[in-house]
Amino acid sequence: MARIIDNLNTISNKIDAAKKRSQATQDITIIAVTKQVSAERAIEAVEAGLIHLGENRPEGLLAKKSEMNNQAIWHYIGSLQSRKVKQVINEIDYLHSLDRFSLAEEINKRARKTIKCFVQVNVSGEQSKHGLSKEDAIPFIESLQQFDKIQVVGLMTMAPNTDDEAIIRHVFRELKKLQQDVVALHLPFAPCQELSMGMSNDFDIAVEEGATFVRIGTALVG
Q1: 134-144 pLDDT tens trace
Q2: How many CA atoms lie within 13 A of 96 on its CB side?
Q3: 115 bridge partner residues
Q4: How many H-runs (helices) and E-runs (strands) does the chain carry?
């Protein structure tokens, strides 16, 4: 298995090249998605300088966090069932999958601090993907004003699993447009400055289209 530091150098070079191609100036936060690797591999990621780690199951998150001694910033990147909110919400720094009102209610009920949330939008419209439609996203965000433990820091989406770059780019571009529409509303509880999009196969395209957080598993940690 390749060393994480070597993988990180390769990915960082690709990000820099993507920023140059698109004349992008935004800072990029790399989330090392450790959901399929051991705690030891996650620790190696932190030692390589990757302090942002992503998990998609409560069990994996809690098991790894118990061995990390508060070294990491934790992102929950999977769909979160309302009944499991109490297990994870006070163990994470960011949630990338806020997509329904009942989940927001449960977060607000259980959280002991403000949770930085990405609203998940299903831009591609694929039935296999979670998330709100583009049309429903802004009304949903506006409905969150009543929840004092939720801050909408940005939007998240997943591109289709395809080799067609035009399709991938369209999805990311549409999310960027939607983000700009939210920003224009000047909602104090939803500054929405961030875009969580791009994974191992398409993070460079995402960076070109405005991503500020990329979620990379296989290409980074295996």
Answers
A1: 999 999 999 99
A2: 26
A3: 150
A4: 9, 8
Per the CB < 8 A criterion, the answer to whether 156 and 113 are in contact is: no
- pLDDT for the residue 148: 97
Taking the alpha carbons of 76, 195, 200, 168 in that order, is the dihedral positive or negative?
positive
Helix H segments across the chain?
4-22, 39-47, 58-65, 85-88, 101-110, 134-143, 165-183, 203-208, 218-221
Cα distances (angstroms) measured from residue 55 to each of 38, 140, 146, 187, 210: 12, 25, 28, 29, 23
Q: Which two tokens stand for residue 4?
A: 């994480």
End-to-end CA distance of the chain: 7
What is d(CA 33, CA 45) in angstroms, rounded to the nearest whole number?
A: 10
At residue 152, the pLDDT reads 98
pLDDT for 127 equals 87
Q: What is the pLDDT of residue 151?
A: 98
Low-confidence ranges of the chain (pLDDT < 50): none
Q: What is the pLDDT of residues 87-100, one digit of tens each?
A: 999 999 999 999 99
What is the DSSP secondary structure assignment for residue 121, as one 8-state letter?
B
Q: What is the pLDDT of residue 166?
A: 97
Q: What is the pTM of this model?
A: 0.96
In sequence order, what DSSP letters do the residues of 152-176 get, joined into one string? EEEEE----S-S-HHHHHHHHHHHH
**220, 115, 205, 134: CA torsion to nearest 10:** 140
Coil, strand or helix at 59: helix
- Beta-carbon-side half-sphere exposure of residue 38 (alpha carbons within 13 Å): 4
